[in-house]
Amino acid sequence: MRLVLLGAPGSGKGTQAARLRDTLGIPHVSTGDLLRAAVKAGTPLGMQAKSVMDAGGLVSDDIVLGMLEERVAQVDAKAGFILDGYPRNVAQCAALEALLERLGQPLDVAVKLEVPNELIVERIAGRAAAEGRLDDTPETVRARLRVYAEQTAPVADHFAEIGKLVTVDGVGELDEVFQRIRKALPA
Questions:
Q1: CATH number, domain at 163?
Q2: Range of 146's domain?
Q3: Is residue 159 part of a domain?
């Protein structure tokens, strides 16, 4: 099973990706984790990313796609993977689809977790308070949600156009949401 997990920040993607990883026995591939690991390991792509990040820039799509290609080519990803944090825009969708086609591992499904914005603000504010994080104020969360709506939400539209999108209600107990996701996955 090769799937992309979509949803706004705070929609529960990371939590549900970990559950899917354990249940399906396939790796959870987070592009943020890939970047941090490559930089820490000092890989060629990691060093390229580090120089961009140290200069305050955004790591290019080419570098991220290269890291993604290295990761999904590993033995544990041959049976599938869960992508979290990529693609973030429609151009990245096309690059991902071309990469997966070249590797002979086409995407099976994109799962979008649907959660109302105000509930996301509440969730993140609660998490921020519990973890003592001062950067997750309701205002900053709303700003991130606006950026998501403008830049990343069209990714779901793209996957819907090619018949790969399923939308799942992300509101409720963790187990309830997980069961909804499992039922939405192709057999």
A1: 3.40.50.300
A2: 2-26+79-184
A3: yes
Domain count within the chain:
1
Sequence-ordered list of residues with C-beta below 8 angstroms from that of 88, at least 6 positions apart, any chain: 151, 152, 155
Residue 63 located in a structural domain: no
Report yes or no on 12 lying in a domain. Answer: yes
Residues 6 or more apart whose CB falls under 8 angstroms from that of 90 comprise 154, 155, 158
Quick one: which of 78, 106, 82 has its CA closest to 31? Answer: 82
Q: What does the angle CA 58 – CA 60 – CA 61 come to, to the nearest 5 degrees?
A: 125
CA 5 to chain CA mean position, Å: 5
pTM: 0.89
Strand partners, 30: 84
Q: Which residue has better confidence, 177 or 84? A: 177
Full DSSP string of 38-106: HHHHT-HHHHHHHHHHHTT-PPPHHHHHHHHHHHHTSGGGTT-EEEES---SHHHHHHHHHHHHHTT--
φ/ψ (deg, to 5) at 40:
-60, -40
Active-site residue set: 13, 88, 127, 133, 144
**Is 33 a domain residue?**
no
User: What's the pLDDT tens digit per position in 139-168?
Assistant: 888 998 998 898 888 999 999 999 999 999
Alpha carbons within 13 A on the beta-carbon side of 27: 15
